[in-house]
Design a protein that fits this description.
It is flat, with a radius of gyration of 12 Å. Helix content is 79%, strand content 0%. By secondary structure, the protein is mainly alpha-helical. It has one domain. InterPro entries: PIK-rel_kinase_FAT, TPR-like_helical_dom_sf. This is PIK-related kinase FAT domain-containing protein.
Length: 77
């Protein structure tokens, strides 16, 4: 779990004002993935939501959010 926490720490300490909206949305999608893997489900959902709102045609963000939701759905069954 240590690499996930390090990845999350890097994303949270990155100054996103220098990146395009698409790149920033990718950061939020990756942050959502790391949050989901560390068990912070509500924060992960918010991060994925922010990513697709920022750049609604970013396929990577939609795919990661879909994978996350599928995992949540199958885990709850």
């Amino acid at each position: 779990m240590l690499p996930m926490l390090q990845g999350l720490e890097v994303i949270e300490s990155t100054n996103l004002k220098y990146f395009t909206k698409e790149m920033t949305a990718e950061f939020y999608a990756l942050k959502g993935m790391f949050l989901a893997q560390t068990g912070r489900s509500e924060d992960a959902n918010k991060s994925f939501s922010a990513a697709v709102q920022m750049h609604d045609t970013l396929v990577k963000a939609w795919a990661l959010w879909g994978d996350y939701l599928e995992t949540v759905f199958t885990k709850d069954k």
